[in-house]
Amino acid sequence: MINIFTEDIEFELSEAGKTTEWIEGVIERHGFELAELNYIFCSDEYLHKINVEYLDHDTYTDIITFDNSEEEGVIESDVFVSVERIRENASKFGKTFENELRRVIIHGVLHLLGFKDKSPEEAENMRKKEDEALAAY
After folding, report:
1. Which of 126, 109, 124 minimizes the C-alpha distance to 28?
2. Is the Cα dihedral 47, 49, 52, 53 positive or negative?
3. How far is CA 90 from CA 3, 93, 95, in A?
4. Which helix (H) or strand (E) holds 122?
5. Taking Cα atoms as reference points, which of 91, 124, 113 lies closest to residue 34?
6. Residue spans of beta strands (DSSP E) within the chain
7. Is 16 helix (H, G, I), strand (E, B) or coil?
8. Name one GO molecular function term (predicted).
9. What contacts 57, CB < 8 A, 6 or more positions away?
């Protein structure tokens, strides 16, 4: 089950049904089971507070993914997304808001599926997986 919430902002996910079906498809193609995936769309300040409080990172970011699963191969997570940061990054990278939003949404899922992005090689592979998922949208 995928749930969509907002905190401290007005936001409505366009094509929510299509987007959730797409996410479910990506999860299934990687052989994982979806238990519960909560997307919480929020402001930069809200996400910054979470970053400081829970991760001890005093930086702004576009997404924070909390893996709540206690079972291998099962997705159970809370994913916080800064709508403001998505808008800013879309403009900075010359992308549409919707494209950047989908990239960030699936980025969080890919982390839950075990993909990392700390090293240059991991980051390159993550980008390739994002592109594959976006092509399937």
Report:
1. 109
2. negative
3. 24, 5, 5
4. helix 120-135
5. 113
6. 2-6, 33-42, 63-67, 74-82
7. helix
8. RNA endonuclease activity
9. 51
Give the count of domains, the chain. 1
Question: Which residue, 27, 48, 12, 7, is CA-closest to 113?
Answer: 27
What residues form the annotated binding site for Zn(2+)? 107, 111, 117
Annotated binding site: 107, 111, 117
Q: Which residue has the tokens 């936001």?
A: 11
Q: What length does the chain have? A: 137
pLDDT tens by residue, 99-115 = 999 999 999 999 999 99
CATH number, residue 106: 3.40.390.30
Q: Which amino acid is at 30?
A: H
pLDDT digits (tens, 9 = 90+) for 1-18: 999 999 999 999 989 999
The amino acid at residue 44 is D
Domain of 78, in residue numbers: 2-135
User: Could you tell me the pTM of the whole model?
Assistant: 0.91
Q: What phi and psi values does residue 105 have, to the nearest 5 degrees?
A: -55, -45
Average pLDDT of the residues in 45-67: 94
